[in-house]
Design goal:
Layout: H1 2-10, E1 15-25, H2 32-53, H3 65-89, E2 97-102, E3 106-110, E4 120-127, E5 130-144, E6 149-154, H4 159-182
Antiparallel strand pairs: 1-2, 1-4, 2-3, 3-6, 4-5, 5-6
Length: 185
């Protein structure tokens, strides 16, 4: 079962980057209400990340008054969101940035991130542009991949969250490929 989980994970595209990440032991008896609230928060975070990462298609007629108004509104909203994110971060202590790879099935994490002696934990991932609102995923330790990394599988019960994570992963991967292609060798 563990090898099959790793195989399924490794055959999919992953979000592979440095993120502020932490893991904490899961409290005993995480109830349905708590799981539903976490699901709603996660969907909200994933929706926010989708909006932040969405690149508006450049209209052919940007010189029109409507196009210019849209650009001004877009700029103002970006400034407001940045200000709100900074305000929310003021009292938030971010965990260190570490390299993680994840998709909707699981994650490959540094061993040092996982709580010692725990089989289940809550993984918190903080994304740039939305640092104060982490994506929180319950995870089960599956296996050590090498001396420095552990593979964990996510315990996501709903399809909407899985789909939103897959879209996030795909958009990130596509952006990284585009950046690589645009950078001269």
């Amino acid at each position: 079962m563990q090898d099959a989980s790793w195989q399924d994970f490794s055959e999919r595209v992953t979000y592979d980057d440095g993120l502020h990440a932490s893991c904490v032991a899961l409290p005993d008896g995480l109830g349905e209400l708590q799981r539903a609230a976490m699901r709603d928060r996660n969907l909200s975070v994933l929706g926010t990340l989708a909006v932040f990462n969405e690149r508006r298609s450049e209209a052919a007629d940007e010189e029109s008054p409507l196009g210019q108004d849209m650009q001004r509104l877009d700029s103002k909203l970006n400034v407001l969101m940045a200000m709100l994110d900074q305000l929310l971060q003021r009292d938030t202590q971010l965990p260190p940035r570490v390299h993680v790879s994840f998709n909707a099935l699981g994650a490959l994490l540094p061993v040092s991130l996982w709580p010692v002696g725990q089989e289940h934990a809550l993984l918190r991932l903080h994304f740039d542009g939305c640092l104060a609102l982490p994506l929180e995923l319950t995870a089960h330790r599956m296996e050590e991949r090498d001396a420095d990394h552990v593979f964990v599988s996510f315990e996501i019960a709903d399809e909407a969250t899985c789909d939103a994570i897959e879209r996030l992963v795909f958009r990130h991967h596509r952006r990284k490929v585009a950046e690589r292609r645009s950078t001269p060798s």
